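the two lines:
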Amino acid sequence: MKQIISIFLTLILFFSQMSVFHAADKSPDEPKNVLVIYDQLAMGTQYSNNLNALEALLSSLSQTMEVVSMTEYQQGGMQRYAKAIILKNTENAIANDALKFDVLNYTGEILYIGYLTPGFLPKLGGLDVTGQMGQGITLNFSQKKINSVWVDECRVINQNPQSNEATIEVGNTSYPFSVTIGNIIFVPTFTEDDGFQICLGGVLKNWLTPKESQHMLLLIPDIYPFSDLNMVIEMSDAFYANGIPFALGVVPFDDNMDYPSMERFYQVLRYVQSRNGSILIHRPSPDTVSDSNTALSEKMYMLMNTMVKNGIYPLGMVTTEDLFFEDINTVNPLSLFSSGTISKNQVGTVTGVKKSWVLNQGSLEIDFETVKNTNSQTRNFGNYPISTTIVLPLPTDDTALGSTVEMISNKWLSLTDYKDLNNQWVIGQNTISSGSGRITVSGSPVSLVFNEESIDANYAYQKPPDYSLEKTFNAGNRFLLLVVGIIIILFASIVLFSRRVYLNKFRRIVKTDEKKDADNNLKDKENKTP
Amino acid sequence: MNVFDYLMIVNIILIWSLLFVNIVLIIGGYIYYLKVEKEPSPEVVGEHPFVSIMVPAHNEGVVIVKTVEALLALVYPNDRYEIIVINDNSSDNSAELLKEIQESNPTRNLAIINTDNITGGKGKSNALNIGYQQSRGEYIAIYDADNTPEHKALSYLVAELKADDSLGAVIGKFRTRNKEVNLLTRFINIETLSFQWMAQAGRWQLMKLCTIPGTNFILRKTIIDAIGGWDVKAVAEDTEISFRIYLMGYKIKFQPKAVTWEQEPQTLGVWFRQRTRWVKGNVYVLIKNIGFLVDPKAKKIRFDIFYFLSTYFLLLTALVVSDVIFFMNIAGLVSTSIKGFSNLLWFTAFVMFVIGVFISLTTEKGEMSVSNLFIIALMYVTYCQLWIIVTVYGVFQYFKDRIKKQDSKWYKTERYQG
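prediction for all of em together
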């Protein structure tokens, strides 16, 4: 019987590894899944980051893509793809005849987002779309609700939504978030807001990867040796005690690796792993690390190997979308991660073909505040319609930690342990894998039990002393700012008033002087007169 | 909390308290300006009193002729005032120049007293005492040797003093004659205007207090008789005489319509030496009169003593100590753990300073300009910091002289042609 079980487990492991390899083996030259055509970035509007938001969504759904603007689009471009997304951020007319022609003759599936252009997609011509300026709306999806999402211009489709579909609620009226007519899905309103991203994520997921399941992760980002490591330990204990799986986003450091403070940092990370925490690595910016990707790769190899030697097993990557696309293939060992989380850019997007590495397990980053603002109609929160990573900054004190734990527990969030996902990472001769809550290195399971090691106390991190009278000074500061502000207003008023006094006084004097001069000139003339 | 924390807290309270005192004075000064603007110019009622104008001069050949000519041209009955120039141990051609001007105005009451290094050369107070011996007027007016009073300046001063028996002295306003020369003279121009409209007009409006500025003022001769002349040890004789007048129960009024134009230092060295003398003089007067701070009879000068005390000791100490602690903190030599105020607050305080000073400029023709606004901002980081240095140096020099038992030397400000 034992033999049967072990054979069974081996088979499972074999197949799971196969699927991971399949994903990780995707080459950059593999055909792209989706063509994204956009009209304009619409800078200065609420839609200026829409393209970034859309790209982040596609990446988190492990989709490769080509991004092209409407002006650059060339005839026949759409025919190479089975699916195309058209993002219309402005009301401007479409001038590219080749695009118009291709759209009319396209047999694949289209997701159309944004402003409708008359005649461009005849199938959508029959829709009654109305726009309303400046609306606080509610988004409903998957038995969840996000309130008070502000939209500068909310366009809605005037028809009754079907049950269980995502809706936009304006006032007391619900409208469908999207409609499907033939081969076209139409989403009238989209912004970069987390709520809209989640709703569109649901549409995209059903459209692109309907069979994939969703998960929800909790990420505490930006942890480095000088973070409040005591809080990291406290938080790990609190999460562990409440059965909350989580991941730490560790900022890579390549200097002073042998310093005791770094050893202490590693010790804390090992402790985190022992408390059901997973370790992810932030993708360093090339600007801050090196201008050479080769140098960056070397540094990252050194860092990763040091971490593994110290019993820390990074399972994935945290990156912004621009960095993910820009150089990921050239920065080993980052390209060898199979999973990670992607956040949307805060900078302008780069168009063109995205020669991206595809994550096997991608997820969309959303703010913890979004989760707070989401009301679930079921006791179990369940998942969002797309895999998400909830980003929670490291709590600043015990009170913040307590309220966070309480919030997560009360919401009944269905958080996934990162180790349960099939992750894989190849570092030199070693391959770190995870799945079913276990981590293996080159096939051998590793223990995550924490053994404390003594570290030179001389290098103990000393928390800077708390400022005395902080509250008093903060209150004094506010009070003085108010008083000084009032005085400035008073002074400015006096200056304005005195300007009037000044003009009245000195204009009069100048006029008197002018009169005197004129009189003198007259007298001079009289004197000169023979 | 360590000792440096407590020091910082005391400093912060001191600096902000004095800042607010000055804000109140700015507003008070402006109210007085509006009041004066509405009132008609003061006129002498009845017979014009006889006035002795005293001009102490030590090597003032460059400017003295212009000054005496301006005094001779005053709009005041010629037979009702005399000009006494005390040519105090001058080694330049002042004596000849004064003689010439005396000879060309034989009908005027112009007396020239030439002293040598035995009778004179002991400073402004001594020179004034010499002139005072010869004076015949019931009022004494003092002008520095570089002054060009406006024609009606004396008349306004006399009118105010004659009209109110409670006044011991009346001071006028002085303006900078050479303000266009360089940035330093522009700074001084702004400084003198803001000082007069804030410290003089503001104090007069709110507390009926003023300090004699050293020039362009008039006082009753009976006061000098009572106090036995000027204190020859005082190098800031103006502050000293002010305190004495207040102790006698008189008030000193500021009459801004009585204007004189004076020449200010054009180089940093001259400015530094002049201001060092002022600081030393004021510290002398302050220490001499510090006892009055707790004397119930000296209620009137308590504010002034406190004002000087806060300026020369408290504020100065606070600024110096906080700066020293700040730099020592950076160097890691001491540590403070108090929170401190935000940079935004310091910035708004700076804006408040600039606008506050600018208010005093709006009272004068040609001064309400954008360029002056920038000059004030520049003053904050340059001129005001120089003031700290000169004050520290002056206080140090004063105590050095005291320890060495040296009398303070009266530094004569260098004059310029024009």
